[in-house]
Design brief:
Largest sheet: 5 strands, antiparallel
CATH superfamily of the largest domain: PAS domain
Helix content: 40-55%
Shape: rod-shaped
Order of helices and strands: HEEEHEEHEEEHHEHHEEHEEEHE
Number of helices: 9
Number of strands: 15
Strand content: 15-25%
CATH class of the largest domain: Alpha Beta
Mean pLDDT: 81
CATH topology of the largest domain: Beta-Lactamase
Radius of gyration: 47 Å
């Protein structure tokens, strides 16, 4: 898995976990908060309705033969439907008046706006409110086939404080749940959009950071002057290549050392010397294959490792060495010209490690200098023994 992918996953997972936990807690708190608010609204509406009913006329409630409920001697409470209509209009809450176990006045209307009195919430009202005079917060009651939330408050006689009826405020849970569903849907979509934007930002940031990290790592592996591998990274790359080589592969290591490079710096200046080294790096890049490992391992010393070589093509290392010597001979940088280098080539078809292969190529390099420089010498592990 790429470093950038790992970094992207490492940044996204905590955000996803946090967002999931936050949304879950938020939805739970929101739903709980809405139910608490609904209970308070229903209770406030019930108390307001009770105050309105109690404020008309004087004396006790009474039920007449015509089925109406009267307050004292002069006010027909059942007929005052405009009070119920006004409350419903202001609060969007249904208001129902019960006299014992009969629904006397209600704002529950059908689609034709006909006021109905049928309800099957009577058991709750009779058992808990009318019988015991206690208030009741019902979360699940049926009114005309609709599941509703309701708040029931007792109505008492002024004379003896006995419970003669109850006033219930209610609201369908269908509409209430739709509010929650819309909120959850809207919040979820918003959260997904925010997470998507955050993902795009994190992806951009990770890509930028990974590129900067790659550039920094790449710079640490390469020689700043020539762009070739530096000594440490060159050795690491070669050791990895030797470790993974096939049984029949031959390891080929070249050490290239500039001849009299101090003379170039002393006579033409270090700037020209640097240009010569860069030019030499370009020559090596053109001469070898793209999979060959090239490094600048010292001031004027270079090394090249050629992986995946067979015995039949070992002579290619000598051909390349001859080409390099020719390229150096015709190279001209400013007023400086006529360059040369000594090349030592070490080859091994066995199980040499980097250290042994280096010593083999180094012996070949020493021999090329002994022969007068500006030449190459190749030693094979079959020919040279420790």
């Amino acid at each position: 898995m790429k470093y950038s992918t790992k970094l992207l996953i490492a940044n996204c997972i905590p955000i996803l976990v946090f967002a999931t936990i936050a949304l879950t807690i938020g939805f739970m708190q929101f739903r709980s908060g809405l139910y608490d608010e609904k209970q308070g609204n229903l209770k406030s509406t019930a108390l307001a309705a009770l105050a309105l009913y109690s404020s008309h006329g004087y004396g006790d409630y009474g039920r007449k033969a015509d089925g109406n409920v009267w307050r004292g001697m002069n006010f027909n409470v059942s007929a005052a439907t405009e009070i119920v209509d006004e409350l419903k209009k202001q609060t969007n809450v249904d208001v129902t008046f019960f006299f014992w176990d009969t629904s006397e006045m209600t704002s529950i209307m059908n689609k034709e706006d006909i006021r109905t009195v049928e309800t099957n919430a009577i058991d709750h009202i009779r058992n808990y409110t009318l019988a015991h005079g206690s208030q009741l917060w019902c979360r699940s009651i049926k009114i005309n086939g609709r599941t509703c939330q309701a708040y029931v408050i007792p109505i008492r006689q002024d004379s003896n404080n006995s419970v003669v009826g109850a006033l219930m405020t209610s609201q369908s849970t269908d509409g209430f749940n739709q509010i929650i569903e819309r909120y959850i849907l809207t919040t979820t979509i918003t959260a997904l959009v925010i997470l998507f934007v955050a993902f795009l930002f994190i992806r951009w940031y990770v890509a930028r950071f990974s590129q900067e990290f790659y550039d920094a790592t790449n710079k640490s592996k390469h020689d700043l002057l020539t762009g070739l591998f530096n000594k440490r990274s060159f050795e690491d790359e070669v050791k990895a290549a030797i470790k993974n080589k096939k049984p029949n592969d031959v390891s080929v290591l070249l050490i290239l050392d500039f001849d009299n490079f101090k003379h170039v710096n002393d006579n033409y200046g270090h700037q020209i010397g640097d240009e010569v080294l860069k030019a030499f790096g370009l020559i090596l890049g053109r001469a070898f294959r793209t999979k060959d490992i090239i490094g600048r391992v010292g001031g004027d010393e270079f090394m090249v490792f050629m992986p995946d070589m067979s015995k039949e093509y070992l002579g290619r290392s000598e051909e390349i060495s001859q080409e390099i010597l020719h390229e150096l001979a015709i190279l001209k940088v400013g007023d400086a010209e006529h360059f040369s280098c000594s090349i030592g080539i070490g080859t091994d078809a066995g199980n040499y490690d980097f250290k042994k292969l280096y010593l083999l190529a180094d012996k070949a390099l020493y021999e090329s200098k002994e022969r007068g420089k500006a030449c190459y010498v190749r030693f094979s592990s079959d020919e040279v023994h420790d």
